Fold this protein.
Amino acid sequence: MKKIIAAFDGLKYSQSTRDHAIALARSAKMHITGVFLEDITYTSYKVYELITKDGVSDKKLKEFAKKDFDARNKAVTDFENACRKAGVAYNVHHDRKTALKELLHESIYADLLVIDSKETLTHYEESSPTRFIHELLIDVQCPVLLVPKKYRPVQKIALLYDGRPSSVHAVRMFSYLYPVAANIPVEVVSVKGMGKDMHLPDSKLVKEFIKYHYPKAVFKVLKGLPEIEIVKHLQEEKKNVLVVLGAYHRGTLSRWFKASMADELMIELKTPLFIAHSK
């Protein structure tokens, strides 16, 4: 049995993370560990809200602290109830130290991490990719499934391939972790520069590799700049597509499946992204 981490901010609970993790756990008979990031330095309130004409109000501090405590407990209860209802195995971790450090440590002992693509672990809204997600993806120790705000069942798989080992590794890890139903179409997407031929890098080898994992997969070769053509192609897709791409790691960035490519997909698309490193 494989282990999924579903990472949550209990003060801004992501039902989408819950639903994606449960759907995957049910289809692949995986165990979910709900990791609730309860960093003691992070609260729903700001310091100035505690200030009165007499200084910091102990009464207000206790009221706000109780409100946060109740919100986090409510999130845990919702997660547990949803797992029980779905009939999936689960457990809960309460990580109360530095959120990013704790989650990176948890990722060493997991097969997959599921997290909201807009997670911040701050008071503030941030544009994608948020600082928390950016720093997480650089050093995470297992594949990551970034999920959008709302859950929708996956209707198509897009495997991004550029001929580098990182993109092949991502496909390999995805095939190990994510069961794809026979009726779900799989498309391998590549981009060639203007003036280049339309042949895939290592065409014979990659087609053989893909055939053994996804016998009905089709190949799509686009012309132009990857960060433009990939986004455009996926935006035109009518089905709810899950995108698989390679390295996000410092020093091992693919030629074009680099941080900016993943960032562009997070900015422009509202679709799940499966990201795996090749270290």
About this structure: The chain has eight helices and twelve strands. The first helix runs from residue 15 to 28.
